[in-house]
Amino acid sequence: MPSVVDVQASNAAYAPSYVPVAVFTGGTSGIGKAMVEAFARYTKGRAHIIIIGRNRAAGEAIIASFPKPTDTKDGWKHEFVSCDAALMSNIRSTCADLIDRLPRINYLVLAAGYMSFTRTEKTSEGLDRQLALRYYSRVVFISSLLPPLIKARESGQDARVMSILGGGGPPVDLDDLGLAKARSKTFGFGAAKAAIQSTGYNDLMMVYFASKNPSIAFTHIFPGYVKTPGSKMTLDFGWFFKPFTWLLWAMLGPFCVTPEICVEHMLYALLDGEKGVFFRNDTGDIVGSHVFDQSHVHVYDSDSDSPTYAKKGLIDGTPVVGYNGSDMGVRLLNLHTEEVIKT
């Protein structure tokens, strides 16, 4: 396990010969904000940094704090792009604009989202809000921005995608994809299940994209327990249980880290790993990983009668530590997702 000092030293050594292009969703608060600020600090502002979020005032205030290189012709740029990532139509429009003007993207960091064990609501597009932010939006961002990521890799530069949520999540309930059954139950069962299942969804999502783009690194990472405003909302069990909420938060407090410490490990993980899929823990350690061979058709590209098709812990038939998905799960979730987010 690398120490904070070790990862800080590694991050400080990051000095690409080119001006990196980095896109951050959810970069105006919490872990996303700290991640953007750390990237700007370690690159000394010599980067094209794009923050995607809803709060323009917060985004522009963050950008104003970035170090500014003296060479104005170096190609660096810092910008905020307004987008409500809960709506897939907004994401598609935003990504279309980015593709039109960005020749490449080196880093795509997905941190937008919220978590609640009690509240269930739908977006104007009819999607569960938690799943929309924690899963469907991330699929749309990745699939839409793959062309400039591929161009970066083809030019010999880094091309890496990171989803910050819960690497090595639980097995996905393949009998209730989208969680319609769970939401029909009472006492916040649907909200709690969406919070938990979305981490497993992200595992399968990253496996799928890594298999189709074997030269790009796809990382799903668990940030740990971090002191952010959103984490208190997560533990909101309503007014009746508010004393219990305060007690639970007080118990978890000593195990939480600040966003600034958390993102040192997140950035370390982002800059590590050339290609394949990675599941990482809160200190950036690789819990499990797999590099894909494109010389054959993947097990989950079609229905399979392989005895390992539905077996948990396998990627393309290969055992992977820290992974609770299955090849069948990758296929079924992808089919479900394509149907849900189709235009």
Automatic annotation (TrEMBL):
The keyword Oxidoreductase appears for this protein: yes
Gene3D superfamilies given in the database record: NAD(P)-binding Rossmann-like Domain
Keywords for the protein's UniProt record, in alphabetical order: Oxidoreductase
InterPro entries, per the entry: NAD(P)-bd_dom_sf (IPR036291), SDR_fam (IPR002347), Sec_Metab_Biosynth_Oxidored (IPR052228)
GO molecular function, a single term: oxidoreductase activity
Superkingdom in the source lineage: Eukaryota
Pfam families reported for this sequence: adh_short
Protein name: Ketoreductase (KR) domain-containing protein
Species of provenance: Piloderma croceum (strain F 1598)
